[in-house]
Amino acid sequence: MKVSKVLVAVSLAAAVGLVSATAHAAGACPNDGVVRFGVEPYESAQRMLPVYTDLAKMIGDKLGCTVQLYVATSYNAEIEAMRNNKLEFGQFGPLGYVLAHQVAHAQAVATFAGEQGKPATYYASIVTWPGSGVKTLADVKGRSFAYADPASTSGHLFPAFGLSKNGIDPDKDVKGLYAGSHTASFEALRNHKVDVGELNSEEIESAKLHNEYDPSAYVTLWKSQPIPLDPLAVRGDLPADFKARLTSVLSSLDFRELPEVDQKFLASNENPELKTVPQTDAAYDQIRDLVSTLHIDLAKL
Predict the structure, then answer these.
(1) CA 101, 276, 262, 188 torsion: positive or negative?
(2) Per-run averaged pLDDT (10 residues), the chain, 301 residues
(3) CA–CA separation, 93 and 155 (whole Å)
(4) What pLDDT shows up at residue 65?
(5) Quick one: which of 201, 259, 139, 190 has its CA closest to 3?
(6) What pairing do the DSSP bridges indicate for beta strands 276-278 and 106-112?
(7) Rounded to the nearest 5 degrees, what angle is found at the Cα of 238, between the Cα atoms of 234 and 243?
(8) How many Å apart are CA 76 and CA 149, to the nearest integer?
C-alpha cells in the first residue's frame, strides 16, 4: 500500500539500505542491533525508496536501533522474509498481512490514521476507459483485465470478489494478467494496453500527486466497501520488551517530522492526519471472510 498508497522489481541488494540511528545499550535491539523493516512494492521503487529511507531513519531514531530497509520484489517476498526471520517488522497489504499472520507470525500493531484519529480505509474498483466498448460489468467477459499482484488485496482479491458477485468467474471469464503493481496496472489502463483493470483509491491519489490522473479518462464499473489500510506488523516471536517498545513507536509516528516531499507522498484522502494509530488483527477479519468466500488458498498465492 501507499499510504496514499504510495508495488516493481527491485533486487534485494539494490533495495536494502542501512539507516543509522544511535544504538541503545547492547542487547536492547535484536539481531546484533539491526532492526529490519520490510515494505511491499505497492508503488515504483524510484518513488518509494527516498521516502521510506527517511521513514526508516525516523523509526530508528525513536527506537534507538539501526533500521535496515528492505523494499521487497513482491508481496510474497516480504512475507517469506519475515517467515525466515529476516524481518523484525513490515508494512503489508491487508491480504498479504492475513497470509503473513498465518505463516510468518506477523502481528498487526499500527496503521495509518484517517479522520478523527481512527484507522484509515481505502477502496478498490474495477474501471475501463471511454472507447473500450465496455459499458457495464457484464461486458467484461472475454476482455483483457489487469490485476496488480496475486497477493494484493485491492489489486486482486476485491476485484475478483466484485466480478464473482456479479456472475463473472475472475479466473476464466476474463483474460487476466498480473501487471506486478498498482502503478503498472494503472499504466496499462492509462495507455489502453488492457480493456479493464483494477484501480484503487490510493493509486488514484498517487497519480493525482504526479498530475497523471484525469477522472474523465476512466469509467468506474464497480467499487468496493471500505477496506482497512495497510498494517504495520511486528514479528510475533520478538523479545517481549523490545516488541512492546517497537509497537509503541510504530503506533505513534508523526509523518510531519519528515521532509515535506515525503509528507506529500504519504498523504492522501485516506490518511489526512499524517500519523499512525494502533491497529489490531481483528480489523482484517473481513479480508479473511473474502478469502473464504472466494475459496482462496493463501499458501498458493
Answers:
(1) positive
(2) 36 38 56 94 85 97 96 91 97 91 96 88 95 97 95 89 92 95 95 97 90 96 92 96 97 96 79 89 90 76 63
(3) 10
(4) 96
(5) 201
(6) antiparallel
(7) 60
(8) 10
pLDDT (0 to 100) of residue 299: 66
Top-tier CATH class for 12-119+229-300:
alpha beta
The Cβ of residue 216 has, within 10 Å, a number of other Cβ atoms equal to: 7
C-alpha cell at 113: 490514521
Residue 242 is placed in which grid cell? 523490545
* 3 state SS for 177-210: EECCCHHHHHHHHHCCCCCEEECCHHHHHHHHHC
Tally helices (H) and strands (E) across the chain: 10, 14
263 exposed, middle or buried (CB, 10 Å; 0-12, 13-18, 19+)? middle
Q: Give bridge partners of residue 232 from the DSSP assignment.
A: 91, 110
124-224 CATH fold = D-Maltodextrin-Binding Protein; domain 2 (3.40.190)
Kindly provide the residue ranges of all beta strands, DSSP E only, lying in 49-170, ordered along the sequence: 66-71, 89-91, 106-112, 121-122, 125-128, 144-147
C-alpha cell at 43: 508503488
The pLDDT, as a whole number, for residue 8 is 34
Determine the distance from the C-alpha atom of residue 131 to the mean position of all C-alpha atoms in its chain, rounded to a whole number.
31
In whole angstroms, give the CA distance from residue 203 to residue 3: 10
Supply the pTM of this predicted model: 0.71
Break the chain into its structural domains and give their ranges: 12-119+229-300, 124-224
Q: What 3-state class would DSSP assign to 81? A: helix
| Residue type at 22 in one-letter notation | T
Residue whose C-alpha is closest to residue 206's, from 37, 7, 14, 55: 7
pLDDT at site 19:
43
Same fold, 12-119+229-300 and 124-224: yes
